[in-house]
């Protein structure tokens, strides 16, 4: 999937989706970012839907009305990875590992590396 750069407003709303652990309605976005008008939120949601950055996750209730809820189709890491050169991705990962402050994080990274090595060996 070809990923487009997000505008400032699109990125601001995607940040809200990425930080949430549940689907959000346009009203939820307005509550999180009261400085953005409801019309702007709805327009950006339509644009993000057309760009396939978000999808309709279901229906919810806002007071007594049914409302659509949305969830991201792309993670923040996947989004940024599309704009990094492979050498930069390596440098970021190496720098993260060098400065990791806890063993648990390093163990998770090590498990991912082992999993990927096994997948490549099986190809």
TrEMBL record:
Highest rank taxon of the organism: Bacteria
Name of the protein: Uncharacterized protein
Organism, scientific name: Dubosiella muris
